[in-house]
Amino acid sequence: MLLKDSYDVIVVGAGPVGLFLATELQRFGVGVAVLERLEAPSQQIKAGSVGSPSAEIFDQRGLLDRFPQPDLSIFPKGMPVGHFSGLWLLRGAPELRTLPVFAQQAVVEAELETYARTLGVPVLRGCTVTGLDGERVTAEHEGAAVELTARFVVGCDGGRSTVRRLAGFAFEGTPATITGRQALVDIAEPNPLAKGWHRTGTGMVVFGPGPQRVLTVEFDGPPADRDAPLSREEIEGSLRRTSGTEVVVDRLVTGTRWTDNTRQATRYRLGNVLLAGDAAHVHPPFGGQGLNLGFQDAVNLGWKLAATIAGWAPEGLLDTYHEERAPVAAAALANTRAQVALMRPDPQTSALREVFTDLLAYDEPNAHLTRLMSGVDRPYPMDSDHPEAGRIVADRPVGDARLWELLRRPGGLLLDATPDGDAAKVAAPWAGRVAVAEGPQNLLIRPDGVVAWGGAGTDGLERALTTWFGPH
Question: Which residue ranges does the record assign to the FAD-binding domain (predicted)?
Answer without folding.
Answer: 7-335
